[in-house]
Every structure is written in structure tokens, then in C-alpha cells.
Amino acid sequence: MRVALFITCVNDTLFPGTGKAVVSLLRRLGCDVDFPVAQTCCGQMHVNTGYREEGVRLARHFTEVFAGYDAVVAPSGSCAAMVREQYPKLARPGSRGAAAIAEVAPKVYELSEFLVDVLKTDDVGAYFPHRVTYHPTCHSLRGLRLGDRPTRLLRNVKGLELVPLPGAEECCGFGGTFAVKNPSVSAAMGADKTRNILDTGAEVLCAADNSCLMHIGGTLSRQKTGVRTMHLAEILASTEEAQ
């Protein structure tokens, strides 16, 4: 299977280790992984703040870059949801752009979707001997409707103790530009999420979006809680040999 990694802006800029973890994991599972260097932003922030034409241009570029792959895997529920849910609404019906989106968008998967639905596995041979709690980010929960795919994968990680997160379905307060436009509300929501995380006694907070982990992690760090944040891909890429 010829798979392309869609790294996303946040990961490419701030969390390159997550992209490396995805490649390592997928190659371990037998996938031929490419990284198209011409890829850019998916346009989510542009469209969400009213810059529709910029979003259309970025959608057109995305379909050109990722055409021809069997699957496109993103370590981000947020950006995968943008391509699958918003791209079809950007193109004029019957246009060449609409046809290109119809061809590429259904092949774009968030990592846990790809593992469970395409590769048909919920045990990737990972080893991570820590107490972990999982935060289902808004786009992965309400947009992609990932359900229990991430937690199924985590439960099969050798040595990992998965503990439930109180108020798991509540937003952490990041919301992309929401955190910029409504900083006080965003900080209050982040503080609520942090309290719930601490109540679990977890060593590690896991999620499928580094943007949300960055927001929550900032509060955890400022409070000197000692709780680490890790992307799902990094835990799943961990092996006993690498410990």
C-alpha cells in the first residue's frame, strides 16, 4: 500500500517527532510511506476566519500534491476533518476541482482510523509501561467520530494502564483561533481540563491532535504537575526494544 504522510502545519513546525513516529509505525506495519515535500497548510484556519478563496486555492493544491496515493494519513483529527468535511463544500459542483476533491478526500485518514479501518488492526505491537489518560479532541470526537478507535489501540499497548478521563468529551478550550479571540474563556476551559487530568493520577496525557496537547500542556507545565503530553502516534510507535 502506497501511503502519503500529511504532516500538518503544527506538527511540521513544532512537533516533528510525531511525524517521524507515524512513519516508523506505518513502515513497521508494512506500508510504503512517502512524504510529498510540496504539501502545505490544509487551509482550515483560513476558511474558519472567512478567507474562503485562500481555502479554495489550498484545497486545489492539496488534491494535486496527494493525487495517486492509496491513502493519505494525518496525525491530526482536526486537519483530516477539514479535508474530508470542508473541502467538498468549497468546490463548485461539477467543476474539475470538485472531481479532484471527490477522488482524494475520501482517502484521507486520521491515524487511528487508518490503523483500525484500513489495516484492520488494533494491536500494533507497541510497549509503553506508563499510566495514561486519553483526551478525545473535538474534531476527532464530533467531526470524524473516531469513537473508541484510539482507546482500542491504547488498550492493546503492552505495559500501558489506560485510565478514564472525567469530562473527556468537554472541549479543552484551544479551538484554533478561538484561543486567540477568547483567551480568558480558553484559559478557563484549559484549567478545567487540567483538573480532570490530575484527578486521574496519570503520568501521560494522550490525544490525536498536538494543537490541543500544546494548549493543555501549557497549563500542566505552568502548574508544574509533572504530567507529560504525548501524541497517540508516539505511544504506538514505542517498542520494548526502544525503551
Automatic annotation (TrEMBL):
InterPro entries (alphabetical): Cys_rich_dom
Domain Cysteine-rich: 3-83, 132-216
Top-level taxon of the source organism: Bacteria
Pfam family for this entry, one: CCG
Protein name listed in UniProt: (Fe-S)-binding protein
